[in-house]
Structures are given as C-alpha cells and as structure tokens.
Amino acid sequence: MATKGLDIPAFATDQLSLLAAELAAETSQNALLLSTHSPRTLSRAGLAITNLSLSSQRTGLGGKTVLELEQDSAVGGEELSDHGIRVGDIVKVGQQPKGGEKKLEKRSMEGEGLEGVIVRIGRKTVQVALDKEEDERDGLSGMLWV
C-alpha cells in the first residue's frame, strides 16, 4: 500500500489561515462582550476576575513587566473567584468602575487599561506580563479587574 506524501507548506499555510480566522473571531466576540456587559456580569460568567489589587511588579523574561495581582483585602476572601482564565490568555488589566459612576464615565474607562498575557495563575494570585514597555502601569491603582 503506497502512502501519499503530505504537502507540508500547503498544510502550514492552511493552518496559519485557520489560526488567523480563529483569532479574528475571538477578538470580535470579546470586544462585543466587553462593550455590552459590566465587569461584574463577566465575572459571574467566568470571563473576568474582579476586585483585584496590585501586590507587586517585577521585570520578567525579555524585559517585560510582570504584575502580580491578588484579591483586594477590603473585599474579603483570600482566594480568587471562580473563572475560566488560563495561562497564555491575552487579557486587559484595567481600573474597575465604581458602582456610583455614571455610564458616560464607565464608557470612557473601556478603552483604558494595559494588555498582557497571563504568565501564572494560582488560587490567590494572577501574574500578567504586559505587552507595552512604557511606564503606563502608574495609572493602575485601586480596584482592578482582568
């Protein structure tokens, strides 16, 4: 029985186009979810972690800044809430809107935040490697969400 050779360049090209289509679909779906739902709703669905505070920051591999976030002690509970976030997920770390803020102020906060990749996730902490090397992390204070 003769086996046909696999055309590796064609296979790789097909896989890359499929990965690009998957990335575009996930990006548009996440943008829609972020624009239509509050952080609290996303947290209940397991798509976000809320009520975090910055516990430490360090320089990681390749000079990237790694933020370590933990549950805010004012909220209670040391462990993170249930979520579906895994290592390697691309996330945005931003200020959590306060309950009394007006919708216009909440909308202005949507575009803000720092994008990064989850490096490590545990029961008590989340570590995020930031994409930007600029010193924009100074704006992160108070309650944060991923």
What does it look like?
This protein is of the alpha+beta class and 146 residues long. 29% of the residues lie in helices and 25% in strands. The protein has a 6-stranded antiparallel β-sheet with strand order 1-2-5-4-3-6, with no helix packed on it.
- Could you tell me the mean pLDDT? 80
Low-confidence stretches: none
- The N- and C-terminal alpha carbons lie at a distance of 54 Å
Run of helices and strands = HHEEEHEEE
* Fraction of residues in helix: 25-40%
- Shape, please? globular
Q: Major sheet, described briefly? A: 6 strands, antiparallel
- Percent in strands: 25-35%
User: What is the gyration radius calculated from CA atoms?
Assistant: 19 Å
Compute the number of strand runs.
6
What strand line-up does the widest sheet have?
1-2-5-4-3-6
Q: How many helical stretches?
A: 3
Secondary structural class: alpha+beta
Short account of what is shown:
The chain is α+β, with helices and mostly antiparallel strands and 146 residues long. The chain has three helices and six strands. It has helices at residues 8-36, 39-44, 103-110, and strands at 52-59, 65-71, 90-95, 114-121, 125-130, 144-145.
Features:
globular; alpha+beta; 6 strands; 146 residues
Fold topology:
Elements: H1 8-36, H2 39-44, E1 52-59, E2 65-71, E3 90-95, H3 103-110, E4 114-121, E5 125-130, E6 144-145
Antiparallel strand pairs: 1-2, 2-5, 3-4, 3-6, 4-5
